[in-house]
Specification:
Helix content is 46%, strand content 16%. The protein has 19 helices and eight strands. The model has no long low-confidence stretch (mean pLDDT 91).
Amino acid sequence: MTAPGHDLTTADVDELAARFRARTIPHEEWTHTAHLIVGAWHVHRYGPADALTRLRAGIRALNDVHGTPNSPTRGYHETITRAYVMLLARSLDEAPPETSLGDRVTRILAGPLAATDVLFAYYSRNRLLSSTARAEWVAPDILELPRAATRPKIDYDVVAPEYGRRYETQRFPGLEGTVRGFVRARPRVALVVDVGCGTGHWLRVVGSEVRRAVGIDPSAGMLAEARAAGSELRLVRGVAEQLPLRDASADRVVCMHAFQHLEDRRRFAHEARRILRRGGGILIVALDPHANLDAWWIYDAFPSARRLDRERYPATSEIRALLEEAGFAETRTTVAEALTGELAFDDALARGVLGRRSTSQLMMLDDAEWEEGLRRLHATRPPLRADLRLFATSAWLR
């Protein structure tokens, strides 16, 4: 690889990242500069959330190869890694869109992040170097870390009235069978918790299988729609990272199409483990754009949609790793539903498929890309084709 201080090519960055993933970087080469290059590659490729998951596992594994113990005093440091992911995401976003990854990383290595003490601008020394900060995320006490530039955040209170309409025009028999089978898989199920329940569609499905089901969602608008659709539903406003339930009080946790929206997926996995009784299980349903199996008119019409999905959605392998880290066993992923078909353009217009609030992929686009993509679609009027897979990942407590 080109030596630090020289211009890096994208191939240089790719090569070091490949060695990191293969755990073949020697200890003497695993420098601050190498950390930055590998971190930037991961953030660029996977987005901050998934990059952190992959870096966490990769750094620990490389430490094992080097003989460096991951302990309360040495080895992997959660706060430092997460803070650098945030700083790298901001630095990568500041470059013009046409800038190559090699040039982006070269700029980072010539900037403030190249200094090994940069985090002390945000943290006091005692706080950053504490055993607590090494084991878990600790927020800065001097200066707030900069956030990466983000796409428009979806306000689910606003979109709630339209969100549930997808279930009026589309059926998901495979997914429904998967959910029901998961709930029935083992006996003595008293309570099922639907985390990110939205307008309550899947809560009603699981509620038909058990005596008690509770839906949890942070959006008051979504919960209002759920109550309007079924007054018998038990609904609680709350967040996945701090579930409002007692320890060992539930038998199943389901998270349907919501995992990609969570702020801290690792914490949610631990929270799910906390509230589940022994023998309980968790089911997470989501797309996996990292599998490179899907074709979709949205990805074709709006170039950044696939990239944004890769940033938002973790790979199913990462979901399984998070669950195993939290203490789950018997992790398994299957294709729960294959969504395939073709819709004539005029039919799509009539059904509202081209409405911006019809799916989060369209809501995440900036206005300029949305308007340009919609203009092209109206000009060419192509049939809208989909070949998507919904993956279900399950795990159990022994």
